Amino acid sequence: KAKELGRNNFQYFSADMNQDATERLGTLNALRQALANDEFVLHYQPKINLLTGAVVGAEALVRWRSPARGMVTPNDFIPLAEESGLIIDIGAWVLRTACAQAMAWRQEGHGGRDALMVSVNLSPSQLMRDDIVDVVAGVLAATGLPPRLLELEITETVVMRDIEKSLDKLARLKMLGIRISIDDFGTGHSSLNYLKRLPVDILKIDRSFVNDIATDEDDAAIVKAIISLARILNLDVVAEGVETEAQRRFLMENGCDVGQGYHFSRPLPAAAFASAWLALPGETAGTGRLAPAR
Ligand code: C2E
Ligand code: MG
Ligand code: MG
Ligand code: MG
């Protein structure tokens, strides 16, 4: 930022900046304690079959329940966790907790015969670590979750930044039997040539495109193009940020099978997710928009 303002501009380094730095340090120290103090929690957002309304999976999304700051959303602490390296431990906790939860739901008989998939976001530095494959394998072994029920979400920019390294990592992760999706697809600069070579299973259409599909012709065209691309490459496609019935219908009619968004449900704490979306044997499944609004 300072660079943008020009080399001779010293005004930027004002009291403001010092305060920012102090605040950052405070947040960083608090974040360091957060794991030990058990301050993280996962919320789960259902992935919905757009045709039937059935829940097919859940994306685990981390929140920080800070005693001093209240409920902090990932955008407000993941970047700092990423820069400081804390994301490695936080990410491992997320993976373990999400897999253990999915396994618990499975053992309780939630979700019926069709087992529920769980999706976990993987940060750039997690993916680039040499031990990531061992970490994932270790969590699968420790929790007993069948690998086919785990999906890792990786953002497009990360993969494209270091394509050769990503190809190797993703190939070895795939060999564990898990599924891999490209998150926020359309916002980065995927080379179609590499996309073809990437061992991934799913494209997640970024919600910035989904937002205006019912009203903006360009966004509608982009979303249709992504859906066709997915079909050509033999990938599944998931739309994020589905907020209205018009968006759901557009996506369904254009061949997108799965969506997630506030139209169906916000991310919910585990217990609330289970009671809204998962049926025990003998119960009627929680169905789509009949779920209580929260
Ligand atoms: P993401 O993986 O693309 O997750 C989707 C985000 O969109 C979530 O925000 C979700 O709550 C929000 N969302 C879902 N449906 C709608 C909708 O209909 N409308 C709108 N406006 N938003 C919707 P959240 O939970 O704040 O997470 C933000 C980002 O933080 C995630 O984006 C992901 O990149 C990152 N993140 C979350 N949890 C983790 C984690 O455990 N590890 C890592 N490395 N990153 C995480
Ligand atoms: Mg995601
Ligand atoms: Mg996303
Ligand atoms: Mg997104």
Automatic annotation (TrEMBL):
Residues 24-281 form the EAL domain. This is EAL domain-containing protein. The chain holds residues 424 to 717 of 717 of the full protein.
